[in-house]
Amino acid sequence: MNFYTLSDTAIEAELGKRLRALRLRKNLTQKELAEATQLSINSIKALEKGQAKLSTVIAALRELGALDQLDHFIAEPSVSPLQLHKMQGKKRQRASGERSQQSAPKEDESEW
Question: Number of structural domains, the chain?
Fold first, then answer.
């Protein structure tokens, strides 16, 4: 499935549909999943409609034995050996963003 061609709402609905299918494969009712995750049945219904909070998705995946699927969801980024050497083993803390080219003020111009 090419998710790039879908709207955000369509992707949410697809994820809900897949979570519902996973629940049914495990032969669990919505009520049983709600009790096992200590969530309300309305949270499970919202989950299957693609309208859940991330914490609800995680709780459901944990109970359904599918937390390992998160590695496929967003893989952990790898660092090349050259980049690691350049950073001297430090872990990156933030993005630098785009840097603007500021010209130094001319001698006859005031900074004000």
Answer: 1
